[in-house]
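S2.1 Query sequence (IclR family transcriptional regulator)
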Amino acid sequence: MTAETSQTLDRGLRVLKLLADTDHGLTVTELSQKLGVNRTVVYRLLATLEQHTLVRRDLGGRARVGLGVLRLGRQVHPLVREAALPALRSLAEDIGATAHLTLVDGSEALAVAVVEPTWTDYHVAYRAGFRHPLERGAAGKAILEARRQPAADPGYTLTHGELEAGASGAAAPLLGVTGVEGSVGVVMLADSVPERVGPRVVDAAREVAEALR
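Output structure tokens follow.
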């Protein structure tokens, strides 16, 4: 540190870097140990970063990078969408259902990229910017399942009628993308999801994760 630098800002940036380097978040105690400061300082840093949506804390108290970090650069969301579009387009055309990339935004799931199939007579209308609780819908539940099994591949999640009557969904989490929690999925008008859809969604999620690394 020099006379021209801010110790508080330096610590805040170090918090963001530490959180960006972990897939599963860090507790206040862990951050305190890594920064070499007491817990009170960490609480204040996190509270300030949370106000700017740069950090979020889950129900278990673990701090993670917030989507406010993405908003700092206007081109980040377009770049994320651009990276995901080839895999989403292939998924939508292959399955004949609306494909989407969903990211965590606080306690909600936020659709940031959507691709509809071109050859179907009808499909579910789903728009980028759509939000729903993480606890409802395949996209959010897939993310929560990945949190519960941080050391394992949770596979895919299936739901029916949770966000729209008559619609079924399948989603798989993005794995191995530092600082980003999300999922790739499809939504279709059906009573149940065909057997081949789940594994196909998992493959698409892997493709998107590779594109974002």
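The two ends are 32 Å apart (CA to CA). The chain has a mean pLDDT of 90.
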